[in-house]
Amino acid sequence: MLFNTIEYFIFLPIVLALYYALNQRWQNRLLLAASYFFYGWWDWRFVSLLMISTVVDFFLALAIHRTEEPRRRKRWLIFSCLVNFGMLGFFKYFNFFVHSASEAFRALGLEVDAPTLHIILPAGISFYTFQTMNYVIDVYRREMEPTRDFLSYAVFVSYFPHLVAGPIMRAELLLPQITSKRVVTNEHLRTGCLLIFIGLFKKVVLADSVAADVERCYANPANYTSFELLQAFYFFAIQVYGDFSGYTDIARGTSRLLGIELPENFNQPYLSRSITEFWRRWHISLSQWIQDYLFMPLQMRWREGGSLATAAALMITFLLCGLWHGANWTFVVWGGLHGAYMVVHRFTLKLFPQAAKKRRGPLVSLLKILFVFHLVSFTWIFFRAADFTTAFVYLTGILNWHGAISLEDVAQPLFYALLTLGLDVPQFRSGDHTIMLRWHWLPRGAVYAAMAVMLMVMRTDREIPFIYFQF
Fold first, then answer.
1. Which residues are CB-neighbours of 310 under 8 A, at least 6 positions away?
2. Chain segment 141-160, per-residue pLDDT in tens
3. Rounded distance, CA 55 to CA 159, Å?
4. Which of 162, 325, 338, 433 is catalytic?
5. Is 325 marked active-site?
């Protein structure tokens, strides 16, 4: 079920009406049923995978907690990893690894008949797999005690607002809210509705409105002028941000209507002045996950290796982050580029430590923001392209400049950039994603009206799924 559909806006009021009439225990039962219904809307068969992951990790966490014997604890942890990453690997990466292996054999002059399966990728499997794994790992590290309340744990895993595309929730943040009594205040209702409204605006007006141009140019970049490709280059940067951050806003807004707080997953990342800052603001829950469960363990293991070991840990972390996003080598390159950016930034700070401490004027800050934005946008080419051939044709089409430019061509990216900045800058300056609620009623009403009109006028007839549903 998509957030930006009529079905969801029928489903949500029904769930809320029942939810407000029930006590806490029955609310959790309702949330579990609603979450399975929500997830099963795509394909009911995949609810079984969600259930398997839930049951296995609930009992394995208890088993890990009960025993003090290190080897047995580690065996239970490994078993959890095998089950979760086994399901993820089969459904997401089986054909990718088989195809990659057959290509490697072919390069050596060996012909191999590689089996391929028609596997449908379950929506959100990467997200809930990471979520259940961080729960088990935290119990293994003795950073938290496992819950003995199966219902609450099942709700934690399947909670529908964030189930399919995050944020990836830590048990220590979400479980206490599920196990305790919740009170929905007027503030929850006001801020929740605003976040849903902003999220819909980002999805429909920013992301979906440019999706057709992006799709057309990436389908066959050789057919388009350099400026059309450059325009789609900027459009995709807006699309992926509007699409994913829009999902998060709707998820957070929906959850607030239920009296449960989800953390920010995006914090105006395109206003970052360094690539490190970008990853503190982009997909925050994933950034924290890979830092805590990939980068830090690698760095601790190689702590005697100094700067080179840190660079290697960063590269491995971001290469795996790229692979997490999709079963394609283009995603690995995307992750590798970000890893290389991070390594260069760290070495630069080490070589010039005083430069980072100097106060800079607004012009220098603006130039830094533009520089980082274009570094990130360059990587989006590999993220979006179906294969390396498409990516290189796309890049060549921009660099080998050809074709004319019209005023309308220039105006379109500027229009969408101004809309994005119009949302992000007030939030960035105030540190509040619901800052509009504090505005005077007259400008606030005018902005709401303008956004509502654009939502109605600019919505597309085609149903466009959220980009991160494929991950």
1. 299, 302, 346
2. 999 999 999 999 999 999 99
3. 15
4. 325
5. yes
